[in-house]
Design brief:
heterodimer, A: 112 residues, four-stranded antiparallel β-sheet, 11 strands, B: 109 residues, mainly beta, six-stranded mixed β-sheet, five-stranded antiparallel β-sheet
């Protein structure tokens, strides 16, 4: 069945370590997004991609990197430069930039 | 900075009542608006979207949009305890969705 798969569900990062969050979709959507959600807050956009091999920074891109080598996949790397990475990370996709976005189940990242 | 504002709540209603959730947005250029439901510890789930002024109904849910007042609302009729969740309002602004921080709804049995 169609959907967005994020893995892992929980992730722990050590000091100075880069970690990569996976996001795969089989909805044939062109646009994909990464958001961060902190407790009691709304979602903040980290990066988005309209098409393969193209992506743009969102509001809080510092300390993060992405790639979009395949239409189905949009992995997010949380680098050691991100000093406060503990959050709930959500991947979303949509048929186009102005279309409804659908979310994966999320990845919870914590610091060890 | 474009913003979407929501009352954080909690909004408490008895089972069977109408729950009314409200949202204002700052970008007059926003053309599309979305309501998401988020249960505690889970990801947001799209429940309604609206592009035109007026009302849009889907089952027990009605979304209302007033672009002149920059106001969006979500009505939930016959509220059920399973509707207890945080409801996120989002407005499309330029290339992205701007999310409010959400209103927590509690439906009392």
């Amino acid at each position: 069945d169609g959907g967005i798969t994020q893995s892992p569900k929980y992730l722990f990062r050590k000091e100075g370590q880069n970690v990569t969050l996976s996001c795969e979709q089989n909805l044939n959507h062109d646009a994909m997004y990464w958001y961060r959600q902190d407790p009691g807050q709304g979602l903040r956009l980290i990066y988005y991609s309209q098409i393969v091999n193209d992506f743009q920074k969102g509001d809080i891109a510092e300390g993060y990197s992405v790639s979009r080598e395949k239409k189905e996949s949009f992995p997010l790397t949380v680098t050691s430069a991100q000093k406060n990475p503990t959050a709930f990370y959500l991947c979303a996709s949509s048929a186009g930039l102005n279309q409804p976005q659908h979310f994966g189940d999320g990845t919870r990242l914590s610091i060890l | 900075q474009k913003e979407v504002e929501q009352n954080s709540g909690p909004l408490s209603v008895p089972e069977g009542a109408i729950a009314s959730l409200n949202c204002t947005y700052s970008d007059r250029g926003s053309q599309s608006f979305f309501w998401y439901r988020q249960y505690s510890g889970k990801s947001p789930e799209l429940i309604m979207f609206i592009y035109s002024n007026g009302d849009k109904e889907d089952g027990r849910f009605t979304a209302q949009l007033n672009k002149a007042s920059q106001y969006v609302s979500l009505l939930i009729r016959d509220s059920q305890p399973s509707d207890s969740a945080t409801y996120l309002c989002a407005a499309h602004s330029s290339y992205k969705l701007i999310f409010g921080s959400g209103t927590r709804l509690l439906v009392r049995p």
